[in-house]
Amino acid sequence: MKINKPRGTRDFLPEDTRKRRYIENKLRQTAKRWGYNEIKTPTFEHIELFTLKSGEGILGEIYNFKDKGDREIALRPELTAPVIRLYVSELQRAPRPIKLYYFDNCFRYERPQKGRFREFWQFGAEIIGSPRPEADAEVIALACRMLHEAGVDGDLHVGHLGIIRTLFKGLDTDTQGQIMRLVDKKDDKGLEDYLEEIDADIGMREKLFELIGLTGSNAADEAKRLLGDIEELETFRTLLELLDSHSLDYTINFGIARGLDYYTGMVFEIYSSGLGAQNQVCGGGSYRLAHLFGGKEVESTGFALGFDRVMEVCTTEPPADDRAVVVCFDETRKEGIRIADSLREHIIVDVDVMGRSFSAQLKFANTVRARWAVIVGEDEVAQGKVALKDMESGKQELLDPDELVKRLTA
RNA sequence: GCCCGGGUGGGGUAGGGGUUAUCCUAUAGGACUGUGGAUCCUUCGACUCGGGUUCGAUUCCCGACCCGGGCCCCA
Q1: What residue ranges do the domains of chain A occupy?
Q2: Could you confirm whether domain A323-409 is CATH 3.40.50.800?
Q3: What percent of chain A has pLDDT over 70?
Q4: How confident is residue A191, by pLDDT bands cut at 50, 70 and 90?
Q5: Nearest nucleotide by C1' from A373 CA?
Q6: Residue A195 CA distance to nucleotide B38 C1' (Å)
Q7: Cα gap A150→A22, rounded to integer Å
Q8: Which nucleotide lies closest to A81 by the C1' atom and the CA atom?
Q9: pLDDT of residue A259 exceeding 70
Q10: What's the CA A408/C1' B74 distance, rounded, in angstroms?
């Protein structure tokens, strides 16, 4: 009986894995150099962690099950909530700011399509403990830097929920949420109908539509004309200046809502072409979640990037590794293995395990794109030497075994 | 969950109610017994699954599964 992999999951072949690792390492290095430290959280959590954060509505997309102790468990659908849970239980007293990054698989029960899988990987970073725009700017800059390192061109859109929310003062949370959802979807008609339905203030409606339509570099000024002198706008302008200091290109977009209630201020998304309907490679913003998990409230800002989507659009190829094939035969196997093992401290080495003939071993060296063949045959062993063959030039020379390493790593 | 389109060796394909199911590539071995990449030969290997129609289905019909595109959703 042939067993297939479950829907929406993938196998990664050696070539895929190599490329994924390469990009993963680029992202890791970048986060690390920006002073972020990696954390790991469990693959599964109590389901409340996610329902508390996102509401019962997400249950449909969660992989959940009861364990043998009758606990309701969920495979993590994202990593922000686990990170904040970890913060609340372990890091509330840690020196501020707390700068964390993670790279792990997540699970969502959704219809798979391009750039969307049931098991997928997220790379994210969070700054916990700073309410300032500097933290927002840094996180955005880090996200852009990471994408750049991965060889991905992104289109950065930045908004601020605090600004748009000043329009909704007096409306209850559900209504605000509904409006934000429609704004996020860019469903102008639906938004208009809904505002009509709740009999929203005419002035507010006009301002709302004007605000989410604002584009261009002076959108912040326009917003000021529209909304007056509000603190959120000042903060937002500071943020934009900081983004300039980071030399980032961005589009101001007050219509980004990220569909969520817990984002409080800055929100951003990064899009990339070539992904079809799932064109968003990164999303983030500032939020407050700690109180939900029993902690003292704290300002956080962070993002998650969709690693699989990054892989989909990135064209960066990992550099080829230098590798050597040690050619030996039954009579010289002992010497061959010894030499191979010593070379393995320095480069990638294959030794024949197929009992192949001389020419078949060289053919193999070709197929694995070895740069060198180290020939350990009876003639060489008899002289206490080995032959080193450069597979590209075809040139070959006789060497003492202890000279080998020097030649191969030169 | 909904709407399209699609599933033929490991990968890429041709075909089509009765075939020995085509070709390329990859694999293994050989021609070439200590010198690779080329060429040639041989070998291995497939009609996604389940029902239905039919004398006969890989081919037609239905369903499932999976893949792709979109909707929904996207914490």
Answers
A1: 14-313, 323-409
A2: yes
A3: 99
A4: confident
A5: B36
A6: 74
A7: 9
A8: B75
A9: no
A10: 50
Mean pLDDT value across chain A:
92
* Protein CA A29 to sugar C1' B20 (Å): 58
Distance A213 CA to B75 C1' (A): 26
Q: How far is the CA of A19 from the C1' of B9 (A)?
A: 28
Structure tokens, A162: 């605090």
Residue nearest to nucleotide B70 (CA to C1'): A277
Specify the CATH number for A14-313; select among 1.10.1520.10, 3.30.930.10, 3.40.190.10, 3.40.50.2300: 3.30.930.10
Q: What length does chain A have? A: 410
Separation between the CA of A53 and the C1’ of B24 (whole angstroms):
54
The structure tokens listed for A372 are 């060198």
Q: How do residues A223-238 score in pLDDT, each as one tens digit?
A: 999 998 899 999 999 9
A366-373 LR contacts (CB < 8 Å, sep 24+): A366/A391, A368/A323, A368/A325, A369/A320, A369/A323, A370/A323, A370/A324, A370/A325, A371/A322, A371/A323, A371/A324, A372/A322, A372/A323, A372/A324, A372/A325, A372/A408, A373/A324, A373/A325, A373/A326, A373/A327
State ipTM.
0.89
What is the average pLDDT across A39-60?
Answer: 89
Work out the average pLDDT over A35-62: 90
Which pLDDT tens digit goes with each residue over A89-144? 999 999 999 999 999 999 999 988 888 999 999 999 999 999 999 999 999 999 99
- Closest residue to B1 (CA to C1') is A111
DSSP run (H or E) holding A326 = strand A323-328
Three-class secondary structure of residue A103 per DSSP: strand
- With beta carbons less than 8 A apart as the criterion, state whether A24 and A102 touch: no
Residue-level pLDDT at A244: 96
Q: Name the nucleotide with the smallest C1'–CA separation from A361.
A: B36
**Distance of A376 CA from B28 C1′ (whole Å):** 25
Name the residue closest to the C1' of B35 by its CA.
A359
Which nucleotides of chain B does any protein CB come within 7 A of? 1-3, 26-30, 32-37, 65-75
Q: Which nucleotide is nearest to A284 (CA to C1')?
A: B75
